[in-house]
Amino acid sequence: MIPSESRLLRLLTWLTPAFAAGTVGYAHGLEAAIRERTVTDTRDLTAWISNLIEHGSGWTDAVLARAAWIAVTAEDHVALERIAALAEQQITSPHRRRESLAQGEAFLVAVAAWNPPPILSAPYPVAVGATAGAAGIPLEPALAAWLHAFAAHLTGLAMRAIPLGQSDAVAVIAGLERVILRTATRAAGATLDDLGAAVPDLSILPQRAAQR
Fold this sequence. Notes:
- By secondary structure, this protein is mainly alpha-helical.
- The protein contains eleven helices and no strands.
- Helix content is 69%, strand content 0%.
- The radius of gyration is 16 Å and the shape is globular.
- Residues 203-212 have low confidence and may be disordered.
C-alpha cells in the first residue's frame, strides 16, 4: 500500500503546470470576458471562476472525473470507455474538444511512469479522474485538487490579461477555497445525471473566443 503522503505528492505533481499536460491552454471563455469588460477586477474574476466551478465547465469536469474514478476503482473498463466518449460529447466547441483530448493523451503518456489507468485516450478530466482512481487517491481530495488547478490556471491567465498583481491573484484563489471544497464534496456524490452547465452567458463565450 502506497503511503498517503506519496499519493498526495503524486496528485500535486500531476496537476502542476510543469507537468506534461499541465493546466495551460483552454480559457473557458475568460479571455473573451476580459476583452468585453465583463471581467475587469478581482471581484469580477472571483465571481466568474466561482460560477464556472459550481455551475459551468468546472462542475462538468469534476463530475466526469468522479465517474472515471468510480469506473477504474470498480475495474469497469467498459464504463470507463463510455465515460470518455460521453465527455467528448459534452464539449460543444471543436477547439476545446481537440485541446482536451490532446491534454488527456499527453497526461496519460506522462503518468505511464506510475500506475496508469486502463485507457489510452480520453478528455483531460476523465484522464485525471481515472489516473487518481488507479493510484488509490481518495476521490474528494482528488476532485478538490482538480478544481484548485482549474481555478489557479484561470487566475494566472487573468493576471496577464487584465492585468492583476500577485497579491490580487492570491486573494482570488483564497476567496475560492470554500467554493472549491464545497463543490468537490458535491461532485463526489454526483452522478452523470448531474452533468450540465447552468450558466448560459458563460457557455457561449468559449465558442465565441475560439472563433477569433
